[in-house]
Structures are given as C-alpha cells and as structure tokens.
Design brief:
Radius of gyration: 25 Å
Strand content: 5-15%
Number of strands: 8
Structural class: alpha/beta
Strand order of the largest sheet: 7-6-5-4-3-2-1-8
Number of helices: 18
Order of helices and strands: HEHHHHHEHEHEHEHEHHEHEHHHHH
Helix content: 55-70%
Amino acid sequence: MKFTIQESDKTRLLDSLKPANLAFQATYPGDKPDRQPVHTVYGGANLFKSDTCVRMGEIALKNLQTYSPNFVVLANVLQLDGYDKLPHLRKDIADLTERLDEMTETERRKHPAWLAYSVYNKIVQKLRTEPVEDFRIDFEDGFGNRPDNEEDATAVQAAFEVAEGMKNKTLSPFIGIRIKPFTEDLKFRGVRTLDLFLSTLLDKTGGVLPNNFVVMLPKVTIPEQVITMVRLLELLEKANNLAPGTLKMETMVEATQIIMDEEGRNPLMRIIKASEGRCIAAHFGTYDYTASCGITAKYQTMDHPVCDFAHHMTKVALGGTGIFLSDGATNVMPIGPHRGDDLTFEQQAENRLSVHHAWKIGYNHTMHSLINGFYQGWDLNPAQLPMRYAATYNFFLSSYDDAVFRLKTFVERAAISTLTKDIFDDAATGQGLLNFFLKAMNCGAISEEEALATGLTLAEIRSRSFYRILEGRRKK
C-alpha cells in the first residue's frame, strides 16, 4: 500500500487537533447517567411541613381512586392503547382485573389490557411509596412579596421542617428552595432568605444537607446574576465548613432575553458556564415566559408554539452538556367544583367530568413534554400527581420494545466497532439510549430485570455508564 503523507507530519497534525477535541468533549460530555426526577413540586414555603410529601401522596391516591376506581376508567379517560377493547360493566371489569392479577407478567404482556392495567397499578404503587420525587420550597411566586419579618420567620421555620423531615425520612429524594430573583429590587431579599434558611438548617443538622439539595435562582437573564450566586455559595460553604462545590444551583428559562440577547445570541451556554459547574438544571417557566411573549392568560399553555420554540432553543443551546432540562406546569387543576361529603348525584357527576377533563389536559401536556425530550416538569397540586405518573409510565412502557431493540442492536455493533477506534463517539450515543432505561427504572416504570432484555448484564446496567460498558466489553 502506498501513502503520501509522512508519518511524522500526520502525527504532528493530528496531535495539534487533540486539545480542541478534548475541550469539545469536556463541554459536551453527553447525557448524564445520574437520576433525574420526573417532576418538581413547587409549594409555598409558608405551607411546607416535614411530612408534606407524604400527605401529598395520600391526597393524590384518594383523588385517583375517587375518580378512577379501576384501571378501565383511567384508560377510557386518557384513551390509552387498547381502551376500546376493555369491558364496560362493573362485574366484567372486576373479573378481568382478577384474571390479570393472577397472570404472570409475561402472560399479561400478551393481553390487550396490559398497558392500561400496568399504568394504573404502577401509579397506585408510586403514590404509596414515593409520591413526590422532587420538592422545591418556594419563596418566590408560590410565596409572594411579604414583610421582611414574615419571610425571615418562614425561612427559619422551613429549615426546621426540613431538619425534621431528614430525621424522620419523610422528605422527597430531591429537595431544594427557590429564592427570589437577583433583580435590583429583590436581590437583597433573595440573599437574606438563602442565608437564613441554610444557616438555620446546617446549625440544626450539625452541618448536614439533605440528599440532592439545590438552590433555584429564578428569572435569570444575565451571566452576572449567576456569577454572584456562585460567590455567595462559596461564602456560605466556607462559613459552614462545607466542602467547596457542595452547594448546587438551578436556573430558570422564563424570559425571552434568556433565549436571545441584545446581540441576537442565545446566552444560555454563557449562563451555564458562569456557574462554574454548580448549575445542574434549567427549568422552563411556562407562564412567565408566555407572558413575556405577550400571550394572554387564556392561551398560556405548555404546548403553545412559543413554548415549543423556547424548548428547542434550550435543547440546541444545552444539548450534550449534561444539564437536566425541565418543562413547566399545567395550570388546570383536577379538582371538582363541588366540595363536601353530601353531594348530589348531579354534583358528583359534574365533579367527575371536571376532573377527567383536567386529567386529559395534564396528561397530554406531560406527553407533549416527553415526546419532545423533556423528561421532567412541574406539578403544583397533589391532584396533579396521578397524571404525571400516568403519562410517564405510558411513555416508557409503550416505548419499551422499540427501545430494547435499538439499544441491543447498538451495543452489539458498538462492541465490534470499538475494537478499531476510540469509543467516545459510540459512548455518547449509547448513553442516550441507555438513559431511557435508567430513567424508566428510576421512576418505577420498569424493573432491572426488564432492562436485561437489552442484552446488558445487571452489573453493566448498574454501572449507569455506557462508556464503562464498552470499555469492559472491549477488554473481554
């Protein structure tokens, strides 16, 4: 074989490319394998108690069982796959449920009712065991502007409640606070609340933070606001003997200026870099963003075209960085207009119709987010939780077979190709495929055993890293 380029010239040229390639890989490492919650519940700080998440689960389960006493009702409301083949009479539904209960999972998967049955029962199980995955104690929109002494007292009390929840193990797996924005009129209040809350909490717990604690900085429009937050977190860490980098933050995408600045550029990457590695997520604020676009209240919905534009601009700006992205919230609450224990038949029917209508809206909005690659969103009321999980479980279960085929095929091909070239490119793509299963397992949609259908071993799945999987297979 004849070559024209001298080996020394080739080596020198390609070696000069290495720093740029490594810099790119450092900026765009790909999807993170870490657990991402499927939602964040925002609740007013004045209402937060140590057992808030437990009580939300109880309310959510009661709401589900009141308005959908069996899986067939839910399937019909949401028109889940196979709903038109399900029985309508109560006795027939009970008989079918009993038969499905007695089947093995393999047998159930062959039945037309499998999806609807599985989604419903997984929702019930989730609400009983881990109803809230992430909670944000809200000192901004959910709390409002109040006298300083009132917000001070609330910050201290919220810290006490978090400490109590840590002791009793009643907190959600992810938790944090949302302070007021660093605008000129509110920046001092935001810092005061953050300092009071963290100082009180760390004093109460002996310097221990709850797992996966994060500070949400809302209404970010310029990198300088994030830089200021980083310096403040450094001061708090030093004063409270926390290891450098312990305190993490999130930012919010809720103004047009964070999608495009005065020079016509998307500033999101500059805002993320300004966090010096502390920012782990960017959350979309549906209602502030649509308002900033001049959309009137009636049409401020999660699936409005201006929201889709912002979502995709955010995806383009932050894709491959490992920053978790979250959609916003549905503002239609699944709560009936009539309250009380002695409702008439007509009032009960009106409640049911109202709740089912809101369920469908919430479900569709969450499915819209998932289909567009946003695996997290906001919830504002416990009655919204059943539809968060209905959409999430439907999404993962209905996509399971295709995802198994794609990952299994990719693993087989990648294991061969990595024998002859660097594995970074394959690992970045494979991590995205693997993350489907990690996300599905994290929220309870599938089990580890069901993920074995991909051809991966249990040890490989638990490594959560496609790079390590390929490294291990290449060594073998």
